[in-house]
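Re: the request from the purification team.
They wanted to know what the chain is likely to look like in 3D before they choose a buffer screen. I agreed to run a prediction and write the result into the notebook, where they can find it.
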Amino acid sequence: MDKVSVSLFIVVLILGLMFLFSLRHIFSLRSDVAFLKSQRQSQSTKYGQITEQFMPWSSNFPYDPAKFRFIGSPIDGIQFEEDKVVLMEFKVATSQMTSLQRHIKRLVEEGKVTFEEIRLV
């Protein structure tokens, strides 16, 4: 092998190693981005959970906050009025109801919500 071939081999080898390190760095960045997205979603969820506990005391809450009972899951709470009982789910920004929350809403709309008294003897 002559000197030119050895030099060319070394250059190709170095470029190949640089490419492999670049790929490794790119995949490392992808996992960092995925982690940051997960963290942002987690913070958004925590913000929503904290916010929903104070919703009954916000200026645009249409009922008496003293008559609201926080449940937390699967819906946020129940508002007890003189003429009705309101199941409530608070949402912030673009958050959506879960499939269970949509199902509960459907049950209410279909009149499939009842009251039962259970006595323990």
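For the purification team: The helical segments are 3-54, 99-109.
Please add any questions underneath this entry.
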